[in-house]
Specification:
The structure holds two protein chains of two kinds. By secondary structure, chain A is mostly helical. Chain A is built from three helices and no strands. In chain B, helix 2 runs antiparallel to helix 3. The chains are: A mainly alpha, B alpha+beta.
């Protein structure tokens, strides 16, 4: 059985290089919502959110490519 | 041999009830006895409304005796997922947070079922806030699959599927924002229909149990014909749900029995073939052979952006469904199970721009499906990539499939709902019908998908298939509970 990416390698690939910015964002949310997350939980959620954010980047690429192809069809692209 | 009355279908029982041969009071009592006997094993119900059901049955009985028969659901015992509001009956959404909530109104589908004379047996167990598909509920206990008690029944409407599969009701209502009707229908071997977005009113659904643009109410029954009977009652516009579609509703039972031999059936050339297990492939291939023998013509179709479905779906679901939880996250965060709490906080980090971008890609996928469905009448696919994993596999987060360790959940989403989410994103109607059993005796589901508002066409083809294949006649067996 082959897979289109669910699980396989995704976690390992991203976890070595995730952004500390997300951890800060989780801390802010924790404070705002008064949840009382511990460090381990903040770490886990930040990792999860960062991995999702990276996956969502692909959507920007596809949406941009689609918009470009539409503007070409409309003659809207500068020659 | 005379079959046990609780194994009969709505189509078989309705004429008997109408003729006075079967009494709704006795029928209700038989189902309550069945629940009492089997639910300790299966945990399909959160709340059994025995006294209300008995009272309702007496009223129904007197109406029928007086010649005021209302139709096929009059006197039929049904169950409701616990994220649909029921007047005077607690509605928990499988959560600790709402564990004491007793609504003062009925969801529109509940009103319509009551108006049709159906008898509500109780509220079915589900995954916490309908937020996953293994129905291991931390607060109300895990639900067990009637075909193998150590396996998940799927979810999030697991209790609704189990109640039908184990003859603990004749039909049930669930909700489906990622496959929560079709997934448990497949794993429990019953019929599960998620109609077109807007076909069934969602008024009375608990907010926060499904993103507004991807959630649907759906129906579980033992057979396709029964599904048509229930859909006839619950479908249609509702002024209380602005997202329900104000369009004529055909009589779905009329669609049954029409010739299906000229139907063109599409199969996707990617995504599904790459992700189905050997057991599912075997059952699916046999099902395709049956469709061909019935005269349907099979052809491959392409959806170019199919690989983006899980990402678009995950972004949409997480972004849309977080707002109703805002107040609970601020006031009772630790009343979520830990994993769900972490997912909720993670959802708060998704920017609006990302959501809007996901919707652009979603439109692209939707147009690709529209183009595909202009070439074929229906699409078929397996409902699930694998048969039911064990509850233990769900707890540890991965299953052993064809010699591989497959994670059941990651950031792109849920492996178990991989085959159902495309039709939550597109809003297209989709039905799961049993298409065989694995080598260990677990059901496998076939999914039939049609153009928007063509539920009749799906029911027509599904019934022809069901009758030819005959899997609906197989029943789960239970250890003696005496």
């Amino acid at each position: 059985m082959s897979h289109i990416g669910i699980g396989h390698g995704v976690v390992q690939q991203l976890s070595s290089n995730w952004e500390p910015r997300m951890k800060e964002l989780i801390r802010k949310l924790d404070k705002e919502y008064a949840i009382g997350l511990n460090e381990e939980e903040i770490d886990l959620i930040a990792r999860q959110a960062e991995e999702s954010a990276r996956l969502y980047q692909k959507l920007y690429e596809v949406a941009a490519a689609e918009e470009n192809s539409v503007s070409k069809c409309d003659g809207g692209e500068k020659q | 041999m005379i079959p046990e009355i609780t194994t009969l279908t709505i189509a078989e029982l309705a004429p008997c009830i109408k003729a006075g041969v079967v009494s709704p009071v006795e029928l209700t009592e038989l189902y309550l006895q069945r629940i009492e006997k089997l639910d300790p094993l299966l945990n399909a119900y959160i709340t059994v409304t025995a006294e209300q059901a008995r009272s309702q049955a007496k009223i129904v009985q007197s109406e029928i005796s007086a010649g005021r028969y209302r139709g096929a659901l009059h006197g039929i015992p049904v169950a409701i997922k616990d994220n649909l509001a029921t007047k005077g009956i607690r509605t928990t959404a499988g959560s600790k947070i709402l564990s004491d909530w007793v609504p003062d109104f009925d969801a529109t589908v509940v009103t319509r079922l009551k108006d049709a004379g159906a008898i509500i047996l109780g509220k079915t167990n589900m995954h916490e806030w309908a937020k996953a598909s293994n129905t291991i509920n931390r607060f109300f206990g895990a639900i067990h699959n009637p075909w193998e008690l150590n396996a998940t029944p799927g979810g999030s409407s697991g209790g609704s599927a189990v109640a039908v599969a184990a003859d603990m009701c004749l039909a049930s209502i669930g909700t489906d924002s990622a496959g929560s009707v079709r997934t448990p229908a497949s794993l429990c071997g019953v019929v599960g229909l998620k109609p077109t977005y807007g076909r069934i009113s969602q008024h009375g659904g608990v907010p926060g149990t499904g993103g507004h643009s991807i959630n649907h109410f759906g129906v579980f029954t033992k057979t396709v014909e029964d599904c048509a009977y229930v859909l006839d009652v619950v479908a249609g516009h509702d002024p209380q749900d602005p997202l329900s579609v104000d369009a004529a509703v055909p009589c779905y039972t009329d669609a049954l029995g029409r010739p299906s031999d000229s139907l063109k059936i599409g199969m996707l050339d990617t995504y599904f073939p790459e992700n189905m297990s050997r057991e599912v492939r075997r059952a699916f291939d046999v099902a395709l052979g049956t469709l061909e023998r019935l005269g349907m013509k099979l052809e491959f179709i392409s959806i170019p952006h199919m690989d983006l479905v899980p990402t678009v779906f995950a972004c949409t679901m997480r972004f849309e469904d977080i707002a109703p939880h805002d107040r609970y996250l601020r006031t009772r965060p630790r009343d979520y199970s830990p994993r769900l709490l972490y997912n909720q906080i993670s959802s708060l980090t998704i920017p609006e721009a990302t959501y809007q971008t996901a919707q652009k890609v979603r439109q692209l996928i939707r147009r690709e499906y529209e183009a595909a469905l202009a070439k074929v009448d229906l699409i078929v696919a397996p409902t699930m990539p694998i048969p039911a994993p064990s509850l233990e596999a769900c707890e540890r987060g991965y299953a052993e499939i064809d010699g591989h360790k497959v994670p059941l959940q990651d950031n792109r989403g849920n492996f178990l709902t991989l085959f159902t989410i495309p039709f939550n994103l597109t809003g297209l109607p989709a039905l799961s019908v049993c298409c065989g059993f694995s080598s260990t005796g677990l059901p496998v589901g076939l999914q039939l998908i049609g153009p928007a508002f063509q539920e009749g066409r799906i029911l027509q083809a599904a019934q022809v298939y069901e009758q030819a294949a005959g899997w609906h006649k197989k029943r789960p067996e239970f250890p003696s509970t005496e």
